Structure formats: structure tokens, C-alpha cells
Amino acid sequence: MPYLPYRDDIETLEPGEQESIDGIIKGMTQESQAVEKRDGHAVRASHAKSTACVVGEMVVAADLPPELAQGLFANPGTFDVAVRFAQGPGEKLGDRVSTHRGMAIKVFGVAGETLAGHDVPTQDFVLASGTTFPAGTAAGFLAQAKTIGMTVPMPEGVKSAAASIARNINKVLNAVAGGPSATLDFYGHPFGHALVDHYFSQCPVRYGDYVAKIGAFPIAAEQLALGDWRLDPHQDEDGFRHAAVDYFKADDAVFELRAQIWANAATQPIEDTSVEWPTQDSEYRTIATIRLPQQDAYDRDRVRYFDEVMTFRPAHSLVAHRPLGGVMRARMQVYRALSDFRHRETGIVAANTASVADIPA
Q1: DSSP state of 268
Q2: Average model confidence (pLDDT) across the chain
Q3: Cβ 314 vs Cβ 333: under 8 Å
Q4: What is the enclosing helix (H) or strand (E) of 10?
Q5: What pLDDT was estimated at residue 217?
Q6: Residue 312: which of 361, 350, 258, 280 has the closest Cα?
Q7: Which pairing describes strands 101-108 and 122-129: parallel, antiparallel, or unpaired?
Q8: Which of 5, 191, 256, 268 could link 277 by a cystine bridge, Cβ 3.0 to 4.6 Å?
Q9: DSSP H helix total and E strand total for the chain
Q10: Interval 309-336 mean pLDDT
Q11: pLDDT tens digits along 104-154
Q12: For 54, phi and psi rounded to 5 degrees?
């Protein structure tokens, strides 16, 4: 099946979309205020609890075919990267509340026109476990934010129980229905190792002359050997972090960055991120390799910089990889508004980090 070209009119705004986005910002700001009041410190409105904060290199594959040699990946080369692994909630909970996870990647030293308001040579890829974003649209995003907002005041034990129910139902679905539910995984992710998870953009982005979803897939033998590792959350409430730190003491982590190029408008919608793009229409194909060498994955000064100062946003992008679809249009505004709120509250100046040299060693 031939790949479909990018067009400037590829997106269709949802009726009342800006009202939905305004509602998301209002609701998530209120959630952040509730967390700050309870804990005494403003944190990220999602993916607040970091698991590992690391630096490394991304090597763009040589001899990519024309449809893959696009934008940042048009030519072979090596780029510095900063990568933040984190748990999903916008509050720092014990690991027995195991929900979806994030892998935020900042690529330094990129060349090309950037989106308006992004004035440094970087490209961010904000990825999460799960191939889809269950909310689907900006309106769905608003509904999901309201649901999550209702859980913030609940005791942590209730959140743990809810995650456990979602996780156990998903096990049954995986066994009898041929696959898990993305929605259930969002609220109740398995207790596996963070460096074994696959991470996805979930939403489409421009891919030069084409459109694609992006994924990061672990490939190092040492990572894959941890496929059966499971955390006992009753023994260690920060066990995901400790496991990642222990891993980086001894081994490199390696991920292949892959692109799934848009090929079928009927089965691979741009505007509904709850729909998984079938791999029989187009598979994920390798475009680069990210190598994160042995290091202190939770150095105090570096973690403070990653967690409190540095910002990861879909809007930090080349024009050639601009975010697409309603959820991404919402994220472009939501990430900025919530980051601005957090930094006002903490009094810490945000940085749109321009070079890996700006990160504490």
C-alpha cells in the first residue's frame, strides 16, 4: 500500500475545540493546585514522578529509503539526547499505583525551521506506554481530565485498588480477547521494568513529506532479559526508580526509534487517537538508535534540572515534525499553560534547554 502524502489541510478542527482545550487547562490547573496544597510543592501536571533522568546519543540510520529519510532523519548523523522516564500521574504516588508511563526525548543540535515560539535547535518527542491515547479527541481529553481530577483528593490506597482492578481486567482481556485495553492500561499498567516498555507518540506528527506515529522499542539484550521482572510494590514504593538506577550502574540501554508512516486514511485517522493504526497497513520501521550509556540515572542535581527546570513539549518541534490532530493541538496549549503555572508556583525559571552542556553532569 503506498504511503499518503502530508497536506496542509490534513487536520479537521472539532466543533467547540477551543472550549474543550480551555476546559482541560482549567481542570488540570485545579488538579495541580490540589496536589500543591496537599504536598506543599507544585509538580508536573502529568508524569510528575521521574524514574530515570539520563543523557546519551541518537544515531540516525544510514541509507534510509526516501519515505523514511525525512526531516530530522533526512541524513545520517549523531545527536545528543536527554531522556526522562516517568510514571504517569500528575502527583508523586507510591509505585503500587502503577499507571501508564512516559519517555520524553529531547534531541539537540537539529537543523531546520522550527515552530513559532520555539527558538532553539531541538526536537522533542513526548512518548508514552500504549500505542493509543484513549481520550481520542480534545473533547475526550477534557472528559478524561475531569475523571482524573476527581481521583486527586482520594486516598492513595483507593488509587492503588483502582489501578489493580484495571490491571487485572486487562490480563483477562489479553488472554480471552486477543489483546489488552488501552484505556485500562492507562489506569493500571503492569509492574514491569520501565526500560522494557515500548513507548509511542500515540498521536500523529508530520514526517517531512509524509505523516507518521513514532515509537521507541528496547533492543539491548540486557533490557530484554528483564522481560519477566516484576516489582513487589509492598516491598518498595519507589521500586521502578531503584530498578532503573541499578540497571544504568552496569549496562547501557538501547532503543530503536521507529516510524509508522500513514498509509490508509480509512483505518488510520488523524483526528482520533483512540484508534490504533493497523500494522498490516504500515509497520513501525527503524529510523534511528538511541543509546543511553551507563551513568548515575538519578544524580541529585541532574534530577532537579530535569524535573524542575527543563521542559519537554510537543511544541518544541521542527516544522517538518509538527504535531497533528486534536489531542496534539490541545497539548500544544495545555503543556505550556501548566508549565507556566508550575514555574510561577515554584519560583523556578523554566528552561527551553538548547544544549546537553546546559544539563548538570
Answers
A1: S
A2: 90
A3: no
A4: none
A5: 98
A6: 350
A7: antiparallel
A8: 268
A9: 8, 9
A10: 97
A11: 999 999 999 999 999 999 999 999 998 999 888 999 888 876 665 555 555
A12: -135, 160
Residue type, 280: Q
The Cα-based distances of 49 to 36, 40, 286, 350 in angstroms read: 14, 15, 29, 18
Helix (H) or strand (E) holding 76, with range, is none
Q: Which single residue is written with the C-alpha cell 512516559?
A: 102
Dig out the grid coordinates for 48 from the structure.
510528575
Strand partners, 57: 80, 291
To 5 degrees, how large is the angle CA 25–CA 33–CA 327?
A: 25
pLDDT band for position 98 (50/70/90)? confident
The dihedrals phi and psi of 280, each to the nearest 5 degrees, come to: -70, -20
Kindly report the number of other CB atoms within 10 A of residue 16's CB atom. Answer: 13
Share of the chain above pLDDT 70, in %: 88
Strand partners, 292: 253
Look at the chain and count its residues.
361
Residue 340 DSSP SS3: helix
% of the chain exceeding 90 in pLDDT: 76
> Is 214 strand, coil or helix?
strand
Report, in angstroms and rounded to the nearest whole number, the Rg of the chain calculated over CA atoms.
Answer: 19
For the segment 277-282, the average pLDDT, to the nearest whole number, is 96
Q: Distance (Å, rounded) from C-alpha 127 to C-alpha 218?
A: 13
Of residues 110, 61, 64, 58, the one with CA closest to residue 318: 110
CA–CA distances in Å: residue 110 to residues 114, 195, 256, 285: 10, 26, 19, 21
Those residues with Cβ within 8 angstroms of residue 235's Cβ, 6 or more apart along the chain or in another chain: none
**Alpha carbons 275 and 259: distance in angstroms, whole number:** 17
Written as nine digits, the cell of 84 is 526522562
d(CA 321, CA 207) in angstroms, rounded, equals 5
Helices 17-39, 326-346: inter-axial angle, 10-degree rounding: 30
With bands split at pLDDT 50, 70 and 90, how would you rate the model's confidence at 99?
Answer: confident
**Main-chain phi, psi angles of 215, to 5 degrees:** -140, 150
Phi and psi at 304, nearest 5°, equal -60, -40
